[in-house]
Amino acid sequence: MKKIINQPENFVDEVIDALLLAHPGWIKAATEDRRALVRADAPKLGRVGIVTGGGSGHMPGFLGYVGEGLCGGVAVGNVFSSPSSEQIFEATKAVNGGAGVLYVYGNYGGDVFNFDLASDMAELEGIDIKTVVLTDDVASAPAERSADRRGVAGMVFAFKCAGAAAERGDSLDEVARIAGKANSRSRTMGVGLSPTILPAAGKPTFTLPDGEMEIGIGIHGEPGSHRGKLETADEIADRLTGAILRDLALPKGSRVAILVNGLGATPLEELYVLYRRAAGMLADQGLAVARSYVGEYVTSLEMAGASITVMHVDDELETLLAAPARSPFFRE
Amino acid sequence: MKKIINQPENFVDEVIDALLLAHPGWIKAATEDRRALVRADAPKLGRVGIVTGGGSGHMPGFLGYVGEGLCGGVAVGNVFSSPSSEQIFEATKAVNGGAGVLYVYGNYGGDVFNFDLASDMAELEGIDIKTVVLTDDVASAPAERSADRRGVAGMVFAFKCAGAAAERGDSLDEVARIAGKANSRSRTMGVGLSPTILPAAGKPTFTLPDGEMEIGIGIHGEPGSHRGKLETADEIADRLTGAILRDLALPKGSRVAILVNGLGATPLEELYVLYRRAAGMLADQGLAVARSYVGEYVTSLEMAGASITVMHVDDELETLLAAPARSPFFRE
């Protein structure tokens, strides 16, 4: 094990401790246990609040997308575990500015269960809730069951677009429509080169022999669609981008945003090598790259690997992507 | 080997390809081989140009600190190898706006040799050159030979402060004074948990048994001051921060900036756990944390590990740290 941690059971709370200490004026705790965190300026009266949440271990995933022009609050679970419905409910109340609250989170059983419970609790208190469940991971279910797919790095586009819409004062229906549109136009494919070790378990979440890769891996190490010998960066980019484009089936001349995301241990340089080929492939297919993002956006602790996300954009989504946004982890 | 690469000999050029493609309007090539890269708006007439450079494999190190309010240009070597004097000289000419050029780079033999050669070439062309060699790595030489120390993550503070001074129109003497001041007030200590594998060699740069750590490791895997069993995050933070504070010997009430930097494979969460203890230790010593930075700023490919940098700030340095800066990898 090569982890810089203290007692594993304190891991998440120590991270929250540090975030509050390192970035004063960014977020504040909505609960005594500090597992519901909201923008320091929450609630924004008359604005839709966006609440996300999920397990820890994905930084800057979830937490990092709370801020101006992004989400209003987040419920923070243990590593790779859903937050509780109470934590989600507390975040909901804390971001509620009277215009309703949108839940945007990845499609995982525990999260769906707890967000739905929180939604019931919030509705009882008279808070309007809408929900968009993110399902961008191509490898996790076939196209005809796309609603069963998991949510992965596409969350960045959903948070950015919905957050910009909420910030400018769009209605709950509108913000929900935009989050849904961003999700339905985003596809992600990942590749894993090494497993993740959970701090509490101290053991890998799965095994992958050295020199092999898993195409379509999930951000908790969920099995993908192909395991085999590690290929070159170009071959991997072809596989990931190819699967995305087959699923999106865009007409020539379409505009896209692309995100090449590191899962934790893969150097930034290697992400750019992947980007190079993926962008070339998009151009070859007659697609125009409107915006590019390369870096660690949604991780899986120290997993080596990467994912590629492509979102089909139009004028509306491009405007929302370009709108100001600000957290310690994301700036526009 | 768990690398997402193509032919190792094309690695650096493919990364540069991708950077130019992904971030249009940020940098441009000053040479046909594109190993001298400068701000898209270079030269800035009447402004001091800052040129840095070093080996590849440290992203966002070097390259990432070219931009508005940062450096003007960079010479890009092969992985962990110095750029050539010609590449440095070409970057120098391309950023020369008539107010002189400052060289700021880490204290490594090859870099010193080539920057000195480039300096001679530039002076012959009538360009005023000053040089500040960065020496923030506490573990690399004792305090009485501090000029022999290597430069590591402290470069971020030197680039930021000198870049802000150049941007506002300070003279070459002034910008050099500020870079030197930032360097002389910065100290870094690193810890490595796993080695780096060079793409071309395909072998680890050093060996470190699983479950061990190397305190004081350099960003190319240079040996540190202590090797032993992996300790807790708090114990590691104590070791790193303790060594820094013994060397800086600051009076109570001093203000500092702190940078907790990931070397490549260490999750952001673990960097925050280190930050938590380091910031606590600074507070215990009566020091005030003026600014905090946590993330991957200067890496060593996929090395697991981290470094802590502390800079003793005053009003002048705090103003420069807070000034606007913009690259795809650093925003203020």
Automatic annotation (TrEMBL), chains A, B:
Q: Which InterPro entries match?
A: DhaK_dom, Dihydroxyacetone_Kinase
Highest rank taxon of the organism: Bacteria
CC annotations in GO: cytosol
Give the Pfam families listed for this entry.
Dak1
Q: Where is the DhaK domain?
A: 7-330
In the record, biological process GO terms are: glycerol catabolic process
Query: Known PANTHER family for this protein?
Result: TRIOKINASE/FMN CYCLASE, TRIOKINASE_FMN CYCLASE
Could you tell me what this protein is called? Phosphoenolpyruvate-dihydroxyacetone phosphotransferase, dihydroxyacetone binding subunit DhaK
- What species was this sequence derived from? Caballeronia sordidicola
| Upper taxonomic lineage | Bacteria, Pseudomonadati, Pseudomonadota, Betaproteobacteria, Burkholderiales
